[in-house]
Here is the input.
Amino acid sequence: MHAKPSYQMTGHEVWAAAQSGQDPAALLTLARMMAHGFRGLRGDEAQVVALEQQAAALGHPRALRRLGDRYSRGDGVEASDEAAVMWWRRAAQAGDLDAMANLGSALAATAPAEAHAWLAHAAAQGHPYAIATLRDGQPKATLGDFANMSLEQMAAGAAASDDGLSWSASEVKATVEQLNHLAGLWIEHLRTRLYDVATATTIDGDDADFPCPDPRALPASIIADNASIEVTVRSGVVHLQLDATWWDDGWSLALTSYEPHPPAEARAWLVSTLTAVAAQVGVRLVSDD
Here is the structure.
């Protein structure tokens, strides 16, 4: 019997999945939903931090790095550069590339040899911030600033590579429910080939629970106001974005990648998988190319 896809899990099911305390991915999912109040799950900041600490105690790289981020910013915990470096180092040792890049900046003045080693390790695996730092020196911008750069700005800071993923389809005839399932199933397929897939969605710039178990709960203005849905997918250095905007003649879909771009074979798989799950939910996608 197959487990229910995560995007179809109710709030109660998400909560229940985390109760064993032994599944770090379930703990992080619950933490994210409680932080945003998604699916009826609400908790204060202390509860969210506690869930992330549980996941970190199990050695989950992203959870370890998130705690470092919190201590660096004083977000839900008392700010401490020492604690931030400690958690980032543990995350980096567990393989988190963003933590390695963070250490590359945090240790530049006090432990330059270690900082360079972490940057080199992250750069060897294609991390664009680490590549840019090794090439140009320590940037004035933070890693968070870098993460918010546009595709073009980030590409300028990474090693040269072949063209990235840039696929689109216009006049896509689909209901909001079909689009919800299309996105959800596509993400589930990504999880079969990518490690620790993390997603985040905004609708017209606001955090949104999409895809979700009940798309009827989504704002009715998605279609009425030509809303833009942006689904961001991260897995290590893999950074993808699926955009959907409603126009009078249907949806406009676009799938793009950030540096370092996936190789040609992976790009073809990403598009073919999207097309296949669309057909599965009764939606026909025809590339604009």
Q: What stands out?
A: The chain has two domains: 6-156, 166-280.
